[in-house]
Amino acid sequence: MLFRVASVERFALAVLSIAAILAVGCAHTDEEVSIEPLVPAAGRVDPGLGPGTRALSSGPGYKGSPSWSPGGARIAFTVDGYVVDKPTGSEDLRRWTTRDFIAEDTEWESNDTLMILGAAPPSGGKEISSSLYRTRAREDELELETVEKEVSAISPNREGLIFAFGGAPNESRLALTRGGGKINRLYNRPIRGRVAALSVSPDGEEAVLAVRPPGDRETSGLHEFDLRKGEGREITRLDGNQEILGTPQWTEHGPYFVAGKRGGSVDSDGSEPLYEIYHVPVEGGAPEPAPGMGEDFVAASIRISPDGKRLAVIGRLNPEAPTNLYVLDPLVEDFTAVTTNEDMEIKTGPDDLAWSPGGKSVAVIARGTPSTEPEVHADPADRLLRDFYNLYEIPVGRTPR
Amino acid sequence: MRDIVFWLSGAALAFLLTAGAFLLLANLATAPSEKSLNPDRAPGGSGHTLDLQLDRERLASLEPLPDQSLDLAVENGGGEQLSHVNVTLIVSSENTALSDPRYYRQTVEKLRAGGIANVRFEFDLVAPEQPVARPPAATPEPSREILELRATTPEGNSTIRTVILPP
């Protein structure tokens, strides 16, 4: 009897002890974390773009070319051709050009200075040619300072901004501006053809250029340019009517670019990819399809991460699939879908994506599928998100190596 | 051997008791917050006192021409008469680089509680011309027209409807 009582007591003691350990172990030790109030636009992000997605703009306007400020606190972009920027956490929009300006690309020189590739409104029916402008944030003034005319492409690098220019149809040159609107280095070696796009390697030593060779209708030449020596060479030239789409990117493993048949159409069975991502090995050789992406993948635009190790890719798994954001790690051939959206149209322009300075997120531009019927909403137009192309910040997880 | 059985039985029972307690607490804690979600409320609106009712068929028949008209109903869903309701129609383009928005205004006098008043707007829906030939990259698609209807009262009631018309 004594043994039984002792056993029951021991059993009860054991249950209570373990319950106490579990309760203490599972209990919250931190204080409750308050949820920040949502800014108006961020409260209505379409979940199709994934958890953690944040709207960076709202309202009407055809938006493009996002560019983060060096500190990541602001983002600049084009709206119907003119240039604006805003803090990433509020709606306080700031306009940098007149509304009739036609901008192609923007890059930050510093946290209060923008470099803009574009054209001022033409007069007398003259043909528009793009120039490189510099402008500073001012309260009431929209003043553009011309840095160089006949500029065809720009890219930031560690020292400032590299740009391609040239009035002659068969020749381009590169130059470096470190700020202040001055050209600090003019690269004397000309490039045969017109530079359509360029980007600089993360270490700032090489530029990779998409070039339209003299007499060619397509941007078919891929060049590299050593920015220390001031020398360049053609790496490869695409055959037939193949063209390079958008801006080639320089990774740790050599250049990557999007290419395909110019104006090509999808086969009747809908299976032929229009544009693919190609890779040229550092040691040279013919372009090869980028590894790990699947044969049917249709690429639209690519952008290298700030550390030079990952490529953000906008494209489709096959010609009939929805457009999504992916990240390619060329070293481990890891290709990850960041979004699995089926409802939103992600914009596929060559400059319509941008890595945040820390490499933790990517800005893309997207909208819902436009309706063919009138749509009625209970919100003001300037707060609507999915009805118009708007900017979204999408968190990008680090790929384990 | 018996001690081991005791401790294992005790651990299992304690685990079940603790898990049950946490599940109960979790259900109790999450129940009220589901009711507080209301994502579709129009900002700046004040309850459902004012309502704007639009005819979708009429909206679908609007054309990008001058002399368009739109009938709508203003409803006082509150319990008191409204001295007057200002209804504003703002016509603008999706292309924000084009001309400034056009404003039209109507006033409804003395709208009784639960009453409905009809309002007609006659307006110009001609898409503004582009001042200069812009390259396709700037705005490659035809722009849609936007109608923004705002109803406000001196008492601070307001409601809004935004209509996006297909090109």
Automatic annotation (TrEMBL), chain A:
Keywords: Signal. Gene3D superfamilies: TolB, C-terminal domain (2.120.10.30). InterPro entries: 6-blade_b-propeller_TolB-like, WD40. Coiled coil: none annotated. Residues 1-29 form the signal peptide. Pfam families: PD40 (PF07676). This is TolB protein, periplasmic protein involved in the tonb-independent uptake of group A colicins. It comes from uncultured Rubrobacteraceae bacterium.
